[in-house]
Amino acid sequence: MKTIADRYMLTTPVARGGMGAVWQATDLRLNRQVAVKLIDENDLADRNDATRRFYREARITARLRHPGVPVVHDFGSDGGELFMVMEYVEGHMVADLVAEHHPLPVPWTALIAAQVCAVLTAAHEAELIHRDIKPDNLVMCPNATVKVIDFGVATSLGAGEFSQITQAGQIPGSAHYMAPELFDGARASRSTDLYTIGCLLYELLAGARPYASIDLMTEINRSRLEDPPAIGRADVPRDLERLTLRLLDKSSDRRPSSAIEVFDVLKTFVRQPPPIPGLVDSDLSNDPVHMYAAVIQHVSK
């Protein structure tokens, strides 16, 4: 088996994309499971720029200290390969949940999106914009907690090492989930992150993206010119559908003001989620994370 930096022994491939792969691995020094994101520098068209972006992602992710963000343990270069070592997150991609169980029950939809809003609150307080919230970048753990992954295209609202590095003409993140003003040259903002929450809510509730099309440009044009179709579910509360449509508003000024505002609405719909077969179908009352949270919640007013 291959070992990275004389410490991380790769065991099982987890995911593969256009710029590398993620492996489950064993930290030989601490005897624990970790995830290793690996990129072969020889496969990069622009090695210097890609290296800078990769290190930037590691520093951004490490900067965010929140239970909904995987911890970064290490990063560097070894034998011509860039690597980032992170907390290993056991669970299922939310994209897989949508594919297998769509549409999701309202309580699960609210639970997932509310946790993402909590992560975005931490990111926005740190002056960071994720820019790529989507079901493929969310992991649902067996205890029903959600992890937000892939800060590779995140940007900063301020100056410094985390400032925006996307060049003119490039599209950061996934165009399917981008706020329409970004296609007209607007800068990423807290509001554009909130738009992606609207896309997420819509997809979890309807089972498809709001402007889904087999042609990307058609989908982009629809997002800029059309109102989203009705969700079409009688069991979706009117306030939840209204929130979703506000988040998808073409005007950033008419969207909710913050991730906290969205969270406060969503948490009212998280009531006794039904079991999801094969995923979260056990009693979690004695789960250590839930025990910890149950005590802390009494501090809130």
The assigned structural class equals: alpha+beta
Unreliably modeled segments: 159-170
The first-level CATH class name of the largest domain: Mainly Alpha
Taken in chain order, the helices and strands follow as EEEEHEEEHHEEEEHHHHH
CATH superfamily of the largest domain: Transferase(Phosphotransferase) domain 1
- Largest sheet, described in full? 6 strands, antiparallel
Radius of gyration, whole Å:
19 Å
- Number of separate helices: 8
What is the total domain count?
2
Shape: globular
Model description:
The protein is α+β, with helices and mostly antiparallel strands and 301 residues long. The chain has two domains: 3-87, Phosphorylase Kinase, domain 1 (2-Layer Sandwich), CATH 3.30.200.20; 92-295, Transferase(Phosphotransferase), domain 1 (Orthogonal Bundle). It has eight helices and eleven strands. Strands 1-2-3-4-6-5 form a six-stranded antiparallel β-sheet, with helices on one face. It has a three-stranded antiparallel β-sheet with strand order 7-9-10. Strands 8-11 form a two-stranded antiparallel sheet. Helix 3 runs antiparallel to helix 7. The protein is globular. It starts with a strand and ends in a 5-residue tail after the last helix.
